[in-house]
Fold:
Amino acid sequence: MNQPANPSTPNAPRVESLSAITLATHDMARAVAFYEALGFPRRFGGPDEAFTSFALGTSFLNLIADTRGPINWWGRVIIHVSDVDGMYRKAEAAGLKPEFAPSDAPWGERYFHIVDPDGHELSFARPLQGDNT
Structure:
């Protein structure tokens, strides 16, 4: 079994950040409309393209057109936002259906989940103030 690199080793490679996540979609126009309704700023592509990219701070959420088969649950993308309750209201105002109202989690975040049109689960979250976990 390979041992992880010792982070104190000079010049050892280390993970620095998440650059992007790419999600498959069966309907680019529908997916682009969903993410734009949530306020994601589009940086590349669009409803008629095979690839679309949205900026999330210094990271990106990408969409790629894929019609190979059903998209099954694969996990969850957790996105930190400045105002969880405001994002929830924005989603509802756009006619989107979050899975539940924002709540405070025992692990120290306020959050809610919403599923995109292709079944990808998104969690919008913000660390609770004063919680250092």
Notes: The chain is about 15% helix and 30% strand.
